[in-house]
Design brief:
Structural class: alpha/beta
Low-confidence stretches: 13-97, 103-112
Bound molecules: zinc ion
Distance between the termini: 128 Å
Number of domains: 2
Shape: globular
CATH topology of the largest domain: TIM Barrel
Order of helices and strands: HHEHEHHEHEHEEHEHEHEE
Helix content: 40-55%
Length: 323
């Protein structure tokens, strides 16, 4: 009995050894075949005189692989950059502008729009919004779009790049973006060259993000000007846009107050000063915009209201122009 058991064990052992060695043989065969196939593709045991012809092909393959690696590397880099920049600035675009950039020559000749023909008795008003683009700018743009009006936004150069999409939306909506200086400094306290820089850098920034030359006018911060500001404006070819109705929305953060104040004073040819950085102003516009239109006013841009402007002159309304 014990002999039979031992015999069975020996048979099992031998079978296992046989199977194992067979597998090993197959594996060896596979290992052997693979390099043969590979060499058939690449070189196929070349004769000595053929090696010189084969080598470039091998090198070319190596080069392609390397190129692919590089391409993959670049793609990953782009993806990484895109991911990282979703909240900031895409790498393909210039960096955030925190200081005025170097002045650039105008990319395109400035075309001053001719004053559009206006029917007798048609009432025009220019709503203007300073200090943005801000949190409520898009809301005001949506109101203008919905009711069929336009406005002029006097923007700060320092905000233009980071708020570039809103600036583009302004142009697309039919409104316009003009400069309100780069830093919102009181320009009467600056040297003449600094005043010019505040105007031209902001204009260049608007041109840069929209591709459209901004209007040839600006609004000085606080409405502050003196002879030096007027001289600088004239030299850079910009008119100075003031206002004849000041909503005082920055002081009275009350939509009812702003609404009453503007509706009581609205008149043909007026330029109305507001700020698109206050919630109460946007709230007041929900009633002001449709009601002005209902009263027969056409809400136009400053460019449309004034037509061609003269550099260095002060425009308070369509009818009040001061040198
Ligand atoms: Zn301002």
């Amino acid at each position: 009995m014990r002999k039979i058991k031992a015999g069975v064990l020996i048979i099992i052992f031998l079978t296992a050894v046989c199977i194992f060695s067979g597998c090993a043989e197959t594996e060896e065969a596979a290992e052997y075949i693979e390099p043969t196939l590979a060499s058939e593709i690449l070189i196929d045991e070349p004769a000595q005189d053929e090696i010189m012809q084969e080598e470039p092909a091998v090198q070319a393959i190596a080069f392609i692989e390397e190129t692919e690696e590089k391409t993959i590397g670049t793609t990953e880099k782009i993806e990484e950059t895109t991911r990282a920049d979703t909240t900031t600035v895409p790498a393909t675009e210039p960096p955030v502008l925190t200081e005025p950039p170097e002045p650039k020559p105008a990319a395109a000749p400035v075309i001053i729009p001719a004053k559009p023909p206006r029917d007798n008795g048609e009432k025009w008003i220019a709503l203007t919004f300073d200090d943005g683009p801000g949190r409520y700018t898009q809301q005001i743009l949506d109101l203008l779009e919905y009711h069929g009006g336009k406005a002029t936004f006097f923007v700060l150069g320092a905000y233009v790049w980071n708020q570039r999409q809103i600036i583009r939306n302004m142009i697309e909506q039919g409104s316009e973006a003009a400069g309100h200086s780069w830093h919102h400094y009181n320009l009467t306290e600056l040297e003449e060259q600094e005043i010019k820089d505040q105007i031209t850098y902001t204009d260049n920034a608007i041109l840069h993000v929209t591709g459209v030359p901004p209007p040839k006018f600006f609004r000085p911060p606080f409405g502050a000007y003196d002879d030096a500001v007027k001289d600088a404006a004239r030299e850079v070819g910009s008119a100075i846009i003031m206002w004849n109705i000041d909503s005082r929305d920055w002081r009275h953060r009350n939509a009812d107050y702003i609404y009453d104040y503007i509706m009581e004073r609205a008149e043909n040819g007026a330029i109305i000063l507001c700020h698109d950085i206050h919630e109460t102003t946007a709230e007041a516009m929900e009633r002001i915009i449709p009601e002005l239109i209902e009263q027969g006013y056409k809400l136009v841009t400053v460019s449309e209201l004034l037509g061609e402007t003269t550099p260095g002159l002060l425009y308070y309304s369509e009818h009040r122009i001061v040198s």
